[in-house]
Design goal:
Elements: E1 14-18, H1 24-32, E2 36-41, H2 65-70, E3 75-78, H3 84-94, E4 99-102, H4 108-111, H5 116-122, E5 127-132, H6 147-153, H7 174-191, E6 201-206
Parallel strand pairs: 1-2, 1-4, 2-3, 4-5, 5-6
C-alpha cells in the first residue's frame, strides 16, 4: 500500500540521524510518521549493524534484526565527518533539515566544528537533540556508561528482582529506547508547521533520566 508522505503527520519534515543503538528508535518513528530521515553512517558502517539478535548464517553487515527493525524507512549515506570533506557535506545536509539527532558524547561534534552553534548559523530553525550519559556538566560529565550502569545508578536495579537474589535488569536497552521515545515527542511538540518556526533549539538529554522517572 502506497502512502503520500505529504499528507502524513511529519510529511513536510526532514531529519538527520547520527545516533547508535536504541536511540535509532527516535528516527524510526519520525520516519514512520512521514519525515524524510537520513541515517548517517561512518565508513565501514554503523556499529548498530552488528547489534544482536543476528540472522543465523547471514554475512555482516546485513545480519542484524535490530538494525533492520530500527533503521527501517530511513534513507542512508556514508560520511567520514572526521575529515573536512565529510564535515562539509554534513553541514550542507544540516542546512536544510528540521531535526538533527546525535548520541556521540560530550563535545565530540563541537570538536569537529559541527556543534549546534555552528550548524544553527546556516539553519536557524534546526532542532538538535543530543544524548550524553550524565549530562554536559558536573563531576560525571566525561564518563561513559552502558545501559546496565544507567539502570543501576538510576535505582531501577535496586527495585527489580527478588529479595533473595542479586539485582536484575530487563533484557533490552530500556534507557536508550525510553530516551529516544521522549526525544521524539519533544521534536514533534517543537515543530509546528514547517516554515513557520522562527528558531530552533538544542535539547540535551542524560541517559540516566529515564531510569529516574524524568
Amino acid at each position: 500500500m502506497a502512502f503520500d508522505k505529504e499528507t502524513m503527520a511529519l510529511g513536510p519534515y526532514k531529519a538527520l540521524d547520527l545516533t547508535e543503538g536504541g536511540y535509532n528508535w527516535c528516527g524510526k518513528v519520525l520516519a514512520d510518521l512521514g519525515a524524510d530521515v537520513i541515517k548517517v553512517e561512518p565508513p565501514g558502517g554503523s556499529p548498530t549493524r552488528y547489534h544482536w539478535p543476528l540472522y543465523p548464517g547471514q554475512e555482516a553487515p546485513d545480519r542484524s534484526w535490530f538494525w533492520e527493525s530500527y533503521c527501517f524507512n530511513k534513507r542512508g549515506i556514508t560520511l567520514d565527518i572526521r575529515k573536512p570533506e565529510g564535515a562539509g557535506l554534513l553541514k550542507r545536509l544540516a542546512s536544510d533539515v528540521d531535526f538533527l539527532m546525535i548520541s556521540s558524547g560530550q563535545g565530540y561534534m563541537e570538536s569537529l566544528g559541527l556543534g549546534y552553534e555552528e550548524l544553527s548559523r546556516d539553519n536557524p530553525r534546526l532542532v538538535m537533540a543530543s544524548m550524553t550519559p550524565f549530562g554536559e556538566s558536573g563531576p560525571y560529565s566525561e564518563y561513559k556508561a552502558t545501559d546496565l550502569v544507567s539502570w543501576a545508578m538510576g535505582g531501577m536495579a535496586y527495585i527489580s528482582g527478588d529479595m533473595d537474589r542479586a539485582p536484575v535488569r530487563i533484557t533490552f536497552r530500556r534507557r536508550s529506547f525510553t530516551r529516544g521515545r521522549r526525544r521524539r515527542w519533544v521534536r514533534c511538540a517543537r515543530s509546528g508547521r514547517r516554515g513557520t518556526r522562527v528558531r530552533g533549539r538544542w535539547w540535551r538529554f542524560r541517559l540516566r533520566w529515564p531510569c529516574t522517572g524524568r
